[in-house]
Amino acid sequence: MSLAHTAAEYMLSDALLPDRRGSRLKGLRLELPLDKIIKFVTVGFPLLLMSLAFAQEFSSGSPISCFSPSNFSVRQAAYVDSCCWDSLAHYKLDEAGQYKVKSLWPHKALPYSLLALAVAMYLPVLLWQYAAVPALSSDLLFIISELDKSYNRSIRLVQHMLKIRQKSSDPHVFWDELEKARKERYFEFPLLERYLACKQRSHSLVATYLLRNSLLLLFTSATYLYLGHFHLDVLFQEEFSCSIKTGLLHAETHVPDLITCRLTSLSVFQIVSLSSAVIYTILVPVIIYNLTQLCRWDKRLLSIYEMLPAFDLLSRKMLGCPINDLNVILLFLRANISELISFSWLSVLCVLKDTTTQKHNIDTVVDFMTLLAGLEPSKPKHLTQQVYDEHP
Fold first, then answer.
1. For the chain, what is the total number of helices (H) and then of strands (E)?
2. Is 339 exposed, middle or buried (0-12, 13-18, 19+ CB in 10 A)?
3. Which of 26, 93, 152, 265 could form a disulfide with 63 if both were Cys (CB 3.0 to 4.6 A apart)?
4. For residues 265 and 60, what is the distance between their CA atoms, to the nearest angstrom?
5. Which of 45, 212, 53 is nearest to 127 (CA)?
6. Three-state secondary-structure class, residue 91
7. From residue 147, how far is each of 160, 206, 224, 277 by CA, in Å?
């Protein structure tokens, strides 16, 4: 009996989780994996395109090439290029014989519009960092710590039960005390469950998360409007007619009314415009899918932690509408599953519980570890029958 008792003690000691109080949760993830991908794409992609636009401008020199008259000197031709790039206006005769001016300013504003887009897409990230991350990090630290502590308390409770059973000379007294403890719910530690139940009535985190994704959709829609209204009209126009007869050159007869110019950077402009439209079109369903995660509970995570005493949110049907802070916290618990050491142990115990032949006697980790330690999870039948024979 002492050898079995020692083996049970070793098994229970190995089941205890190590104390990580010194280096507690340094790698806590405060962004969901999909949110991180969306952030890198929405912010990094415009910056990449901006660097491409600037690189093309620095490597190719002037972004336009004007066909100056043959009698113009080199300095005069350079002046024509500079003047036409500054004005960037296309002159076209209408049916009434009047010149109609069409601005081509999106070509000039391309790098700066990409920078503005990257800054706008980073605003939802800043909102999340300053409005939600401080509260979320404290919630996760407390919940992860309590989940692991609750598991450890259950293991220590089984160790204590094993010692009491070993020292008890009368098994009836031990089982009577154990059944009384179960009836009075001494084994339960309801602080964590009540805290999570309170989070169901809180909506600050979920409101910030919804606002973050809504802003992303809003800025994406604004990008579509900008591309469609300004870029689409000049997307395929490679040549334009420029007028330099302004100021002192207005009365010069040897200067032609219009000079034809060609946009040498049109290919880069087209690549940037089309790739931006494609990338942000792909991102829209990704953002919408990200929002749909708030419409369902992660019941697998909850079902595994149902093995802890006083953690029966599922069995008591305490879960209501999933759009609340508790669901956001569960999503981040899933993202930080590597920080939950108790999760792997409880997952194994859940699998073993489903394969055991005494499923009806096992509800919590206390019951299962009691069985593994060599104790019956409930009063043995021969003791129950003995009491019945003594007190018919």
1. 16, 5
2. buried
3. 265
4. 9
5. 212
6. strand
7. 20, 22, 46, 45
Instruction: Say if CB 318 and CB 311 are below 8 A apart.
Output: no
Return the biggest CA–CA distance within the chain: 129
Question: What's the rounded Cα separation, in Å, for the pair 311 and 314?
Answer: 8
DSSP lists the bridge partners of residue 100 as 92
| Angle, alpha carbons 269-274-277 (nearest 5°) | 125
Measure Cα distances from 379 to 124, 145, 385 in Å: 58, 33, 10
Mark residue 338 as left, alpha or beta (left: phi above 0; alpha: psi -120 to 50; beta: remaining): alpha
Q: In Å, how far are 49, 340, 384 from 125, measured between CA atoms?
A: 20, 26, 63
Q: Which of 55, 353, 4, 357 is nearest to 162 (CA)?
A: 4
Please give the single-letter amino acid code of residue 37.
I
Q: What is the DSSP string of 131-149?
A: HTHHHHHHHHHHHHHHHHH
**Are the CB atoms for 42 and 99 separated by under 8 Å?**
no
In order along its 392 residues, the chain shows pLDDT tens digits of 454 455 455 445 545 556 665 455 567 888 999 999 999 999 999 999 998 888 877 777 678 888 877 777 788 778 787 888 888 887 776 666 677 778 888 888 888 999 999 999 999 999 999 999 999 998 998 888 888 877 777 777 766 666 666 666 655 555 566 565 555 454 555 677 788 888 888 999 999 999 999 999 999 999 999 998 888 888 888 888 887 776 556 666 667 778 888 888 888 888 999 999 999 999 999 999 989 988 888 777 877 877 776 566 655 555 778 889 989 999 999 998 888 888 887 777 777 666 665 554 565 655 555 555 555 555 555 444 444 344 44
CB 335 within 8 A of CB 33: yes
Q: How many residues does the chain have?
A: 392
Query: What CA–CA distance (Å, rounded) separates 233 from 190?
Result: 64
* Model pTM above 0.70: yes
Among 308, 324, 315, CA closest to 190: 308
Look at residue 241 and give its three-state secondary structure: strand
